[in-house]
Automatic annotation (TrEMBL):
Gene encoding the protein: CYRIB
InterPro entries: CYRI (IPR039789), CYRIA/CYRIB_Rac1-bd (IPR009828)
Species this protein is from: Crocodylus porosus
Protein name per its UniProtKB record: CYFIP related Rac1 interactor B
Protein family (similarity comment): Belongs to the CYRI family.
Region (Disordered): 1-23
Keyword Nuclease on entry: no
Keyword entries, A-Z: Lipoprotein, Membrane
Subcellular location(s) per record: Membrane
GO CC, any one term: membrane
Length: 354
């Protein structure tokens, strides 16, 4: 998790219901402060609000969900490291294809691909764990009687975990999109496995990835941004399965998170508190992630005039960064959202994303 600084000496309010600040005095920002940040275009008195992505600790009421999600998140960095170091078996595969009658080259290629497919299986299985974690967080952050803003205030540790899931997701997809070896390796594995079955040749590794799992993995890796697609589908499913919960509870949670990230990024007095420049990329990824989820869940999406997300402001924040640092995030908005090309999307927003 990237470092996010606190506001030193910040005066924070005690929450309704008697929840206490932590020993540092910086557990919760005041409810009024968050509302002021989100409506600062109306109220120009800048409030000292900072969503504490670094230091938030779970309250008793958060601990059950927090601990469940934490079991998943502690493996996230290892997954990214494995993906970043994934080099593929392109050389061995090319040699085997060019010399189909050379058994040694066939065995060498197969021996190189099998452990890589084991890694791809681990990545896919982690996506399923991440989906379950996200749905648990959505259940906690959208439940009645509190509003989404109140949830983010009262349950900052869960909000932090939600942000960490989105941050991981976009980092994973950025790495996957720039590594064509993943799909090439898996395609070769499936072709070779099929040929072995036809010839009744025992295949090492077949038990690890059976045909049903291979089909699901194939669909997963065929997506340009597979982790984001998994989370989008999970959010949509969460809404459809919880018909007694107003859809606004979920979409307002997402739009509020996007607004908090945008304001922290575009306001110099907030941004100057970042002690680590990586915090900027963290907030940018979280902002884009919640926009995409919002766009998939909300009936008219994130780009319509009635959207509760200031899309022009969010895109401007992205465009204000060094181009090479945000191109992947802009592409995520261009190609993984659902409503960008709808007639309700203004020409200005479309031109900003061209």
């Amino acid at each position: 998790m990237q470092n996010v600084s606190r506001l030193e000496g910040e005066s924070l309010q005690k929450l309704p219901g008697g929840q206490e600040k932590n020993s540092t005095g910086c557990r919760f920002a005041g409810m009024g402060n968050l509302i002021k940040v989100l409506t600062r275009d109306i109220d120009h008195n800048a409030a000292h609000f900072f969503l504490d992505f670094e230091n938030a600790q779970p309250t008793e009421s958060e601990k059950e969900i927090y601990n469940q999600v934490n079991v998943v998140l502690k493996d996230a960095e290892g997954i990214l490291e494995d993906l970043q170091s994934y080099r593929g078996a392109g050389h061995e595969i090319r040699e085997a294809i060019q010399h189909p009658s050379d058994e040694k080259l066939q065995e060498k290629a197969w021996g190189a691909v099998v452990p890589l497919v084991g890694k791809l299986k681990k990545f896919y299985e982690f996506s399923q764990r991440l989906e379950a974690a996200l749905r648990g967080l959505l259940g906690a952050l959208t439940s009645t009687p509190y509003s989404p803003t109140q949830h983010l205030e009262r349950e900052q540790a869960l909000a932090k975990q939600f942000a960490e899931i989105l941050h991981f997701t976009l980092r994973f997809d950025e790495l996957k999109m720039t590594n064509p070896a993943i799909q090439n390796d898996f395609s070769y594995y499936r072709r070779t496995l099929s040929r072995m079955r036809i010839n009744n040749v025992p295949a090492e590794g077949e038990n690890e990835v059976n045909n049903e799992l291979a089909n699901r993995m194939s669909l997963f890796y065929a997506e340009a941004t597979p982790m984001l697609k998994t989370l989008s589908d999970a959010t949509t499913k969460f809404v459809s399965e919880n018909k007694n919960l107003p859809i606004e509870n979920t979409t307002d949670c997402l739009s509020t998170m996007a607004s908090v990230c945008r304001v922290m990024l575009e306001t110099p007095e907030y941004r100057s508190r970042f002690t680590n420049e990586e915090t900027v990329s963290f907030c940018l990824r979280v902002m884009v992630g919640v926009i995409i989820l919002y766009d998939h869940v909300h009936p008219v999406g994130a780009f319509a005039k009635t959207s509760k997300i200031d899309m022009k402001g969010c895109i401007k924040v992205l465009k204000d960064q060094p181009p090479n640092s945000v191109e992947g995030l802009l592409n995520a908005l261009r190609y993984t959202t659902k409503h960008l090309n709808d007639e309700t999307t203004s020409k200005q927003i479309k031109s900003m994303l061209q």
